[in-house]
Amino acid sequence: GPVGLPLQVDPRWEVPRHHLILHEEIGSGEFGRVLRGTLTAEEKGPATVAVKTLRSSASSAGGAELRDLLSELELLKDVDHPNVIRLLGACTDPEGPVCVLLEYCGLGSLRGYLHRSRWTDTDDADDALDKQDKGERPAMTPRKIISFAWQIAKGMDYLGQLKLVHRDLASRNILLNENLVCKISDFGLSRDVYVDEAYCKLSAGKVPVKWMAPESLLLRVYTSKSDVWSFGVLLWELCTLGGAPYSGVAPHDMVALLAAGQRLARPEHCSRELYRVMQGCWQSEPQERPHFAQLVTILDGMLARGS
Ligand code: ACK
Q1: Residue of the nearest CA to atom 19 in ligand 1?
Q2: What element of type H or E holds 19?
Q3: Burial class (CB in 10 A: 0-12, 13-18, 19+), 8
Q4: What local confidence, expressed as pLDDT, does residue 202 receive?
Q5: How far is the CA of 250 from the centre of ligand 1 (A)?
Q6: Is 124 a residue of the active site?
Q7: What ipTM does the predicted assembly reach?
Q8: What pLDDT sits at residue 89?
Q9: Nearest 5°: phi and psi at 237?
Q10: What is the pLDDT of residue 59?
Q11: Distance, CA 84 to ligand 1 centroid (Å)?
Q12: Are 227 and 169 in contact (CB under 8 A)?
C-alpha cells in the first residue's frame, strides 16, 4: 500500500528541507511532536506552519508511530474542506526525519481554548501556562458554542462522504485558527472504512474510552455513526467549557454504565434543545443516531433562530 516502506517521495507534496525552518515545540504526546515552522520560498512570502514529526524515541515503538504519521499524511492528501486541517506539504526524503506540514492554527486546540475561556482561576499549572501563552481569556457565548459545533459537524459530514471514520473525535483534536475557524485534526487513528474494513485491532496506545460508542467499546466497530456518538460527547465538552466527561468513573466501568442506559447529564448552561441533540447522538442503536448532515441542519436552524 501507499504507506509501505521504503518511502516513496511524492513530488506533488514534497518540500525541500532547506525551505523549512524549525522553531519551538508546540505539542507532544502519544502521537509524536508538533513544532512551529516557517516555510520560506512561498509565493505569498514566508508562511507559519505546524510541523508534525516523530518523537526521537519513536523507533523503539516498532515503527507504529511512523506508520500512523504516514497514514495520516496519505489521508490528508485527499481532503479539502475549510473545517478539516489542511496539508501544506511534507519532507519525506531519506536525508532526514519525516515531517508533515500542516496549516498553523494560532489558537491551538479547542479544548485549550475552552479552558482559557473559563471564569474561574485554575490551580492547574498547565492551564495557567496556557492562559499566559495565548493571552486574554476569550469570551464564550452560547452562539459561539453552536457555531463551533456546526463547523465541526460540517467537517465531519465531509469526511463521512469520503468514507473516512475519524475514531478520535474530541475537543483535544479540534484546532482553532485566529479567525475562530474549527479544523478537525489528528487523523492518526483514522482508517478508510472501504480500504480497511476489517481493521479492528486497537492501536497499542491509549483508547479514548469516554468518547467511544458502545459498539466500539464492545465490538471494536467504528463507523460514521460511532463518530456521531463522539460528537455528542464533544457537544457536552463545549457546554461545560472543556469539562471531563464521566469524571470519577473508571474507564473499565464505562461499558456497564452505558449498557445500563446511563448518559452524561445535561450541563447547567446547556439548552434543553441542545441536550436533546446530544441524547440523539447517544442512542444505543447506531442507526437511530442522526447523520452528520442532519446535525448540520439542526445546528444551522439553531443559529438562524439565534438560540
Ligand atoms: O492546545 P495546543 O497548544 O495546540 O496543544 C496542541 C498540541 O499541538 C498537540 O496537538 C498543538 N497543535 C497541533 N497541531 C497544530 C497546528 N496545526 N497548529 C497549531 N497548533 C497545533 C495543539
Answers
A1: 105
A2: none
A3: exposed
A4: 44
A5: 28
A6: no
A7: 0.95
A8: 97
A9: -60, -40
A10: 58
A11: 14
A12: yes
